[in-house]
Write a structure and sequence with these properties.
Layout lengths: L20 H9 L3 H23 L2 H18 L10 H30 L8 H20 L3 H12 L4 H8 L3 H19 L3
């Protein structure tokens, strides 16, 4: 006869429930693979979750979790119930392994940074001198143009005006401005040595 849910017969033995994790680790220490499967089933999720929170990369977290579970198999005999719960011991192992992974990755990045050739330091003074010389050469070449060529080119290239706007500002026809600018740019090119 079946008992109604929630009620027990007098004298019935209560369900034993799943074995205690510490007892399972004791069995694992003696080489019990079935016990390890139960430990794995209980701890793989929490160990992976902790590793993921520390390393922040799912592939790395999977590797850390695998390493921790292998360590639990090999070092189950090192667990001491007097020092804390079995799950706390396992999570401590997981945390240490995950932190080691993060430190190792950082050390690798630091080592790579030390070995990599440094970025070239640009000599700012040299760059400034070079730019100043270029500006002086452009000014010298502009000074060699006729007044109308220099005025047209300056308005167009430094003032940002269009050909039509330059023509209106100078009160000259558009064709004349185009001719002045073309001739002036040719003279500038020759003066600057641009090919």
């Amino acid at each position: 006869m079946n008992d109604p849910p929630g009620e027990r017969r007098i004298g019935a033995v209560p369900d034993a429930g799943p074995p205690d994790l510490a007892a399972l680790l004791d069995r694992v220490a003696r080489g019990d693979q079935d016990a390890f499967e139960q430990v794995y089933a209980r701890l793989s999720g929490p160990v992976y979750g902790l590793a993921l929170r520390v390393v922040r990369d799912s592939a790395q977290a999977e590797e850390v979790a695998q390493e921790v579970l292998v360590e639990l198999w090999r070092k189950a005999s090192h667990y001491r119930p007097s020092k804390g719960s079995a799950s706390a011991w396992a999570m401590t192992l997981a945390h240490r392994r995950a932190v080691d992974r993060v430190r190792s990755a950082q050390a690798g990045r630091d080592r790579e940074a030390r070995v990599s050739p440094p970025e070239p330091d640009y000599d700012e003074v040299s760059e400034q001198v070079h730019a100043r010389l270029e500006h002086q050469q452009v000014r010298r070449c502009l000074a060699g143009l006729t007044e109308t060529q220099r005025e047209s080119i300056t308005l167009a290239y430094y003032g940002g005006y269009t050909y039509r706007e330059v023509a209106e500002l100078l009160g000259v026809g558009l064709a004349a401005i185009k001719t002045r600018m073309r001739d002036g740019l040719i003279r500038l090119r020759d003066c600057l040595g641009v090919q």
